[in-house]
Structure formats: C-alpha cells, structure tokens
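stage 2 :: seqdesign
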C-alpha cells in the first residue's frame, strides 16, 4: 500500500528529507492550451499555505492508493471534466478542513469537494466554483440536513449579520468548546502532514488554550475600500472580502472587534463616505485598540505625547477608558503579564490582548517546568528571535539572567528597547536585523548553550533556512516555537528534529485560540535537546 508521504504534493521548500512524491503525470496530447495552463496553476501550491494543507487532508480522505491511481492515470487535475460550470451538487460533509471548510467525498470516491459554513454530519447543497488538485471548491447553497448534535449547528450562537457573506469568521454556529477541540485536531493534522516525523516523535497535542473573550476580543481591524467608480453611486462599500471571492462587502460593524474599535469605525466610515467620490485608489483604514495615553491615565486630559509617539484623545473621555488609534505612526499601549508595552499602531503586535497573559504565562510555565526537577536544565539565558516590540522577551525577562532579542523592523526594535526602559528591565538587549544576525558578533558570548532557550515567533511563512541552520549550529538547550501558522511551524520543527538526528525532541505542543470564530490557530511547541545532566550547573 502506498503511504501518504508517497502520494503527497512535493514541497517547493523544506523538508528536503521528504520521501519521493508522486509526480509521474503522463503528458496528455489531448489537453488544450487552456487546460494545460489551468492544470499548471492547480498543480502549484504555496508551501505551508491553505491549499497545501487542504491537499494533504484531501489525500488522506481519498486514501493514498486511490491518489496514486488517479495521478498515474492523469486524473488528479481534471475537476473541470467532473463538473459542469457552477454545477450544484448534494454532498455529505465528513470532516472540517484546517481552513474552515467542510469536506465531502463525491459518490465515485475519487474527488473531494470543500464548502464553507457547514459541519461534519451535515448534508448540503453546494455550487462548484473552482478546481484544485484532487478537489474542488464550492459555495454553500443550503444546508439540507443540519447537524444538531452536541458539536453541531446552533444558529442562535451567530452574532454577526454578515455571517456566510464575509470571509472573516467561519465557526460562529459552533459551540466554543467544539471550536477548541477542532483546533487541537488542526495542530495534530499539521504535525502529521508537515513535520515528516514518525508518530512516536510527536507528543499528544494538548487542549487548545482558550481565549477569555469569544467576541469583542480583536484589538486591530483593517477594513478597506476600492477606488470610487460610478457603480458606487449608491454607497462606496467599506469592509472585507466576500467569502470565496475577491469582491468587497460593505460592513458596518465587526462583532469580534472590541467595542472601542467598533465605535471608532462608525466615525471613520462616515469620514470616508463623506469624500467617497474623491478616491482614485483603494485604501485601508487602521483601527487599533489601545490603553489611554500614560499622561491621561495619570490625570491629565487632552492630547498627550510621550518620548516615542502620541495618541490623540478627547477631553471628554474617562481617564482610564481605552482609545482607538487610527494613525499608523501614533502610539498604542497595552499591559500584558504585568508589563507595559508601547509600539507604533502600524507595527506588529498580537491582536487579542485578552489571551496574552495566559499565552505568555504558559510559555513561562513550560520553561520553569524544564528548569525544575532533578534532570532539569538551568535556563539562564533567553534569545527572543522575531521579537517585535519585545512581548515575550520582556514579559519573561524575570526568569532569566539575560535576554537578547532580534527583529527585522528597526521601528519595533526601538520600541522593544523603550519597553525595557519603561518596565525597568535592565537585563534585555535588542538587535535590529535578520533573525540569524543574533548568532553573529559577540552579543551571545556569555550565553552558555546548555543554559539557553531560543524562543522563535516568525511570520506565517516560518523561518528561513539560514536561521534554522544557525540555530542548530548554536545548539541551545531548549527551543520554544510560537507561530500563527501551525503548518510551517510543524515543517520547521520536523526539520530541526530530523536534521539534528533527533538530538532535539518535542516536549509539548498545543494550540492557542487567538482568533475565536475563525479557522486561525496559533501553535506553541517546546523542543528540548538531549543534554548531559548538570552540564551547566
Ligand atoms: C509574528 S510576529 C511576532 C512578534 C513578537 N514576538 C510578538 O509576539 O509581538 C513576527 C515578527 O518577525 C519580524 N520578522 C519578519 N521577518 C524577520 C526576519 N527575517 N528576521 C527577524 N525578524 C523578522 C516581523 O517584523 C514581526 O515583528
């Protein structure tokens, strides 16, 4: 029997330790130029992106043998032969994908169809709209038989009037516990499909860390609009993309955003609409929830400035009321895990401030657990790679003798340094540059590798090869990998474990739900290197 890895799509990037993928597709002289072009497009998937994750899932549902047969016969890219354009089909949903679609296998057992806003156990009617390798995407037309079971559908949970139109939230009909359970499966599936590790090297995925708020949690919103066109005579739409389309839908409020953001959004929308006809290009609005400026919180009202930025505030607002910042150069303030953080509204900061205390504390607990006990390593140094404005490094600095952060955005590094000062933290140093630059020069001279943790929190694409190579060469005792893309996270972790010939093993993996109601899932994994006990005592 063929295994999943043999049938899997080739990865354009890591891991190179991949087993040979099934690529032998006979060239079909019958194919028209147009079909060849469409097939080429379907054959290309972005590494670690949603299509690659769905493709692995599709292969699992069809079975590796079937996929090999279909591929060898050149029948894995022929969705347009299977369905007429916009054909409506009935489909039984059997599983939920990692990106929010319900998946069902067609009657012949040879093709998967993915449709949004439906749940396993439901029978739906769907309109097929586009094709990919071994599967097609469809719009939901109607739920014929809803799943009313414990983990099923309950429309009374839906708080957004744009549900099924807006692309933002997929799971509002689900119970929150079911959302968390599903995200645990997403992490499990990501490591099964992307890490290339055998199952005994992957620990049981722990329960997903919940968000304290399931609505009104989002602290940043970026609605956009297009250039004014005569067709906008009625009203220029401002909002987000329609589900499954690039078309913009007009959105007046977003229930996953904080009240402060929604209040400011109403006012900002009105300003844009008032000069709608002047927009020759589209644009994006920035709305960022913030604590009030320090001077206002301390008693003074009016516009306030600090040494690194400013927030406009109105005299009427209560001195401790949150504000909404709309200028990307203005200052935003957050208080996380007992520490103050300030940063430019336009720079990166995690977008659900409610969960950050437990996220940071969870990472801290993992490190103190590893440090304690007879076989514990003494973790005295922390490297915070991809550190932004210093969230993890500064919030955890009290556990360590020294912290070194590195970040590509010099603006964020400026704020990381500022935040260290703001909180009276004197054991943290921050470097501006690519993550791998931290290993160059003398900064880590005193960081004994057996006493060092490297915390990584890269963008969605994961880490560069250069960084991973230098990380392995540095050889820290512990690696904590935080990521907003569990697929590239699993890929990079698999690479570290395999490339180190299993000197690194995975101590724990868990998801964190920074974005309730959506398919997004943050992952936190801890890797520990085998170490001579007491080597760093
Ligand atoms: C997901 S954010 C994490 C930031 C921070 N850890 C936090 O939680 O606030 C990723 C950060 O990596 C930075 N970044 C992107 N590519 C980088 C690179 N090659 N080297 C260093 N930092 C990078 C981005 O500017 C961004 O601040």
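stage 2 :: out
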């Amino acid at each position: 029997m063929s295994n999943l890895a043999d049938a899997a799509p080739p990865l354009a990037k890591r891991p190179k330790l991949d087993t040979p993928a099934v690529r032998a597709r006979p060239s079909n002289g019958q194919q028209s130029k147009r079909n060849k072009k469409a097939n080429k497009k379907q054959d290309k998937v972005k590494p670690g992106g949603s299509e690659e994750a769905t493709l692995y899932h599709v292969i699992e549902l069809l079975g590796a043998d079937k996929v090999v047969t279909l591929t060898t016969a050149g029948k894995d890219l022929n969705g347009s032969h299977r369905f007429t354009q916009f054909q409506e089909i009935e489909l039984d949903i059997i599983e939920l994908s990692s990106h929010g679609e319900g998946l069902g296998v067609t009657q012949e057992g040879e093709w998967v169809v993915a449709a949004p806003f439906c749940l396993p156990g439901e029978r739906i009617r769907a309109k097929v709209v586009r094709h990919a390798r071994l599967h097609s995407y469809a719009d939901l037309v109607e739920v014929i038989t809803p799943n009313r079971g414990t983990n099923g559908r309950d429309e009374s949970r839906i708080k957004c009037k744009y549900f099924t139109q807006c692309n933002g939230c997929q799971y509002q009909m689900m119970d929150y516990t079911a959302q968390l359970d599903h995200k645990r499966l997403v992490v499990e599936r990501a490591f099964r499909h992307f890490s290339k590790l055998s199952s005994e090297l992957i620990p049981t995925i722990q329960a997903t860390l919940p968000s304290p708020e399931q609505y009104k949690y989002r602290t940043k919103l970026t609605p956009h609009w297009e250039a004014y066109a005569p067709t906008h005579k009625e009203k220029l739409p401002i909002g987000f993309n329609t589900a499954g389309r690039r078309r913009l839908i007009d959105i007046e409020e977003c229930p996953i955003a904080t009240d402060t953001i929604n209040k400011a959004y109403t006012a900002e929308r009105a300003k844009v609409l008032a000069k709608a006809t002047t927009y020759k290009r589209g644009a994006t609005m920035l709305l960022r929830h913030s604590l009030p400026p320090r001077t206002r919180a301390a008693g003074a009202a009016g516009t306030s400035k600090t040494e690194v930025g400013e927030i406009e505030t109105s005299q009427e607002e209560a001195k401790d009321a949150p504000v909404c910042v709309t200028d990307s150069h203005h200052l935003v303030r957050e208080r996380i895990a007992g520490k103050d953080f300030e940063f430019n509204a336009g720079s990166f900061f995690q977008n659900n401030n409610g969960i950050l205390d437990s996220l940071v504390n969870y990472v801290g607990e993992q490190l103190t657990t590893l440090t304690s006990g007879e076989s514990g390593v003494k973790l005295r140094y922390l490297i915070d790679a991809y550190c932004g404005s210093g969230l993890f490094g500064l919030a955890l600095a009290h556990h360590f003798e020294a912290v070194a952060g590195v970040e590509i955005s010099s603006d964020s590094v400026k704020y990381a340094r500022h935040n260290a000062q703001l909180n009276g933290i004197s054991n943290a140093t921050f470097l501006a540059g690519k993550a791998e630059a931290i290993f160059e020069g003398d900064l880590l001279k005193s960081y004994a590798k057996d006493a060092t943790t490297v915390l990584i929190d890269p963008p969605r694409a994961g880490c560069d090869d250069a960084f991973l190579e230098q990380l392995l060469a540095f050889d820290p005792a512990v690696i904590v990998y935080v990521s907003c893309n569990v697929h590239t996270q699993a890929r990079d972790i698999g690479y570290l474990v395999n490339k180190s010939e299993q000197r690194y093993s995975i101590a724990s993996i868990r998801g964190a739900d920074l974005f309730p109601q959506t398919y997004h899932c943050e992952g936190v994994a801890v890797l520990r290197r085998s170490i001579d006990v007491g080597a760093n005592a």
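stage 3 :: structure notes
- Residues 233 and 277 are 9 Å apart (CA to CA).
- Residues 10-32, 298-311, 533-537 have pLDDT under 50 and may be disordered.
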